[in-house]
Amino acid sequence: MRRYCLLFFFLFALTASATQAQTLRSAGDYLHRGFCRFAKGDLDGAIADYDRAIENEPRGASNSFDHSDARSGRRNLKEVIVNRGRSVAIIPLAAAAYHNRGLALQAKKDLDGAIADFGMAIDLSPSFAEGYFCRGTARYHKGEVQEAIADLTRAIEIHPGYAMAYVNRGNARKARGEVDAAFDDYNRAIQLDPRLSLAYNNRGVIRFTRGDFDLAIADYDAAIKLNSRLAEAYNNRGAAWQAKGDLGRSLADYDRAIAIDPRFALARVNRGLLRLTQGQDAEAEKDFADYVALGKSIEPALEEMIKAAKTRRAH
Predict the structure, then answer these.
(1) Could you tell me the CATH number of the domain that includes residue 129?
(2) Most C-beta atoms within 10 A of its C-beta, which of 96, 108, 127, 282?
């Protein structure tokens, strides 16, 4: 089943240096422009600006106020405010630069670089929950599950109300086979923030694997109500309806998942298998061809599923 990545990165409300000059002169200026470029999707430009911010504000730089800046009408900030919901922290500017560069590197799929930068940010600001959260998430995507759990647990220790940290720790625990612990984490996340569609979706996955199809569907319904564009929830609800024998609703959900995300390979496979059981061979072959076109391959396990679908149709 598809792995549910919950957060590659998120944006930060960062204070930046206020300057009357037209040129960039301080680390805060570069940090601010990097943030703006990141928000626009210019990852390389953002990384270049964060590089300059780090060069201009090295690790261990003094937090003292520069009076020459005050006389010139500008502020050379040494600290920034990071605000994500109820998680607020004041961290050294250099830590923010490392952290935000880590976000940009992660968005470019450079997990090693991202993990290293998040680590630098944590070294500069050891009580920065966001840093542990992001490093833990990157480690999860790299397959370093135990390390991810440790980081996400630390984020929760620092900020006990951090609902997304519970969700991502649940993902990591599920990957380790700790299904009950993962289920508890999803429950806790929902208690802390009932608006987290991904928490309902992921809890629904566990309920589905336990055979609790009605409860799984209820979770997928909740996820879709909160986020009508969550393709994973439609795909998963389709699988639950199929398990209950309601093939019409199942097909409709697979259709919706693919309409939202045409590159959703798993939904195409699921729809193809369902179509085979209904004797729609041409449509099923089209789904499998589209699946391969997405860079996937028909592995032996899928070949066996195709054979089984045809066998069920024959009976």
Answers:
(1) 1.25.40.10
(2) 96
Helix (DSSP H) and strand (DSSP E) numbers for the chain: 16, 2
CB distance 91 to 80 below 8 Å: yes
- Taking residue 2's Cβ as centre, other Cβ atoms within 10 Å add up to 13
pLDDT of residue 87: 63
Read off the tokens for 38: 């990141």
**Is residue 225 in some structural domain?**
no
Question: What pLDDT digit, counting tens, does each position of 99-155 carry?
Answer: 999 999 999 999 999 999 999 999 999 999 999 999 999 999 999 999 999 999 999
Domain that holds residue 92: 1-186
- Are residues 35 and 158 located together in one domain of the fold? yes
Q: What is the identity of the amino acid at 285?
A: E
Query: Residue 85 has which token pair?
Result: 């919901």
Same domain, 30 and 144: yes
Cβ atoms of 96 and 82 within 8 Å: the answer is yes
Is the CB of residue 79 less than 8 Å from the CB of residue 63?
yes
User: At CA 200, angle to CA 213 and CA 150, rounded to 5?
Assistant: 115
Please name the residues in contact with 145: beta carbons below 8 A apart, sequence gap of 6 or more: 139, 172, 175, 176
Please enumerate in sequence order all residues whose Cβ is within 8 A of that of 90, keeping only pairs 6 or more positions apart, or say none: 79, 80, 81, 82
pLDDT digits (tens, 9 = 90+) for 189-248: 999 999 999 999 999 999 999 999 999 999 999 999 999 999 999 999 999 999 999 999
Task: Specify if 244 maps to a domain.
Answer: no
Burial class (CB in 10 A: 0-12, 13-18, 19+), 40: exposed
% of the chain at pLDDT higher than 70: 83
- Please return the burial class of 175, using the count of CB atoms within 10 Å of its CB with bins 0-12, 13-18 and 19+: middle
> Which residues, 6+ apart, have CB-to-CB distance to 312 below 8 Å?
277
